[in-house]
Amino acid sequence: MKIHGPSIGIGAAIAGITVFAIFMMAGTGYVNSDNTTKTQSNDNEKFQMNLLSDNTSPILGSKDAPITMVEFGDYQCFYCNQFYHATESDIVKNYVNTGKVKLVFKDLTIIGQDSINAAHAAHCAQEKGKFWEYHDMLYNNWAGENTGWASSKNLLAFATQVNITESDFNACMSDARYISIVKGSVSDAHTLGLTGTPDFFIIGPDNSITKIVGAQPYEAFDEIFKSKLKT
User: What is the DSSP string of 67-80?
Assistant: First the structure.
């Protein structure tokens, strides 16, 4: 099992931030730690962006928000749960609800089978327009890694709590209707070189991308959002 170690450095916000600058008309570039810039082809640019735009949740927020934040997470992950409770609500209040940022979630299921089942369940909930309600339900019922809180029985109970019928939910889960999305998202994460959760990619109005590694504090996200809104 892969360990979500990159999440540990919560206080080391600056150390967990990498910047990629994508130039839509002149190929792809990114700024290295030594401040040099490398360029790549437009084909690679499209490939890179597809890794962030494919196999995602529905958008939370306005589709016209100038900034997109993509989270790769695992519903069993301790640090993903910590981010949800300590930081996400402030991002939603200050940036999503004000139309400045939109959120999408991508699955990186690294802890166990319950992680895969929970991820699939959230996509099943979207059949009733309940993805983000179910996403919140999962984190609000988090009880450790591989402790059984995300069992099939509990996943069904969470579905009924967001007003999805047992028959609809069970049919979706039994058919494994969205397992290709879950597996596709994990494959995207591996192509990006991700090995831990949570990881974030913040895409600005100019298509520049900033990567944040781990459950960094709100201030780290706030600083990046403000910088990108100035572009």
Answer: EEEEEEE-TT-HHH
The 10s digit of each residue's pLDDT in 38-97 is 223 345 556 589 999 999 999 999 999 999 999 999 999 999 999 999 999 999 999 999
CATH of residue 140's domain is: 3.40.30.10
**CA-CA-CA-CA dihedral for 205, 180, 88, 112, to nearest 10:** -140
Domain that holds residue 159: 5-229
Q: How many domains does the chain have?
A: 1
3-state helix, strand, coil split of the chain in percent (to 5) is: 45, 15, 35
Radius of gyration of the chain (CA): 17
